[in-house]
Amino acid sequence: MTKPNDFTVDEERVRKLATLLDEAKLTEIEYAWGEHRIRVTRSPAPIASYAAPIAAPAAAAQPLPAEAHAATHPDAEFANHPGAVKSPMVGTAYLSPQPGAPPFVRVGDTVSAGQPLLIIEAMKVMNQIRAPKAGKVGRLLVTDGNPVEFGQVVLVLE
């Protein structure tokens, strides 16, 4: 039996292990016999990353005719209306203060300045949208629980 300090490296065994490591495309191999162990490792080959091809620039967008723009953006015809109430943020519109409750306003309702019209939830915060002036609700351009964009007309006061 050999003493721990008497261990000598069996170069031929290490070469065989290194050859096996290369042939099997391994990064590490360990061999044990009796009280002895040999571990042969190598750094793994660099991992080639896949780069997605760069998309070609899109062709310049042609402006839509006014009627096509109005068809794709139902609030477009009201964008310059003096009674347009626009969303001050991106979020989700809610027409009532809580699920199952009656809506803040309906088409035809008369509202006073400062009266809540709807809620827009943005980043878990419920933001009341209030009437900027007194008037009659002429159009309601959002539906409950649907997303709204910044500057989107949500309601029109007559």
TrEMBL record:
Name of protein: Biotin carboxyl carrier protein of acetyl-CoA carboxylase
Main function: This protein is a component of the acetyl coenzyme A carboxylase complex; first, biotin carboxylase catalyzes the carboxylation of the carrier protein and then the transcarboxylase transfers the carboxyl group to form malonyl-CoA.
CDD domains according to UniProt: biotinyl_domain
BP GO terms, sorted: fatty acid biosynthetic process
InterPro entries: AcCoA_biotinCC, Biotin_BS, Biotin_Carboxyl_Carrier/Decarb, Biotin_lipoyl, Single_hybrid_motif
UniProt entry keywords in alphabetical sequence: Biotin, Fatty acid biosynthesis, Fatty acid metabolism, Lipid biosynthesis, Lipid metabolism
Record SUPFAM superfamilies: Single hybrid motif
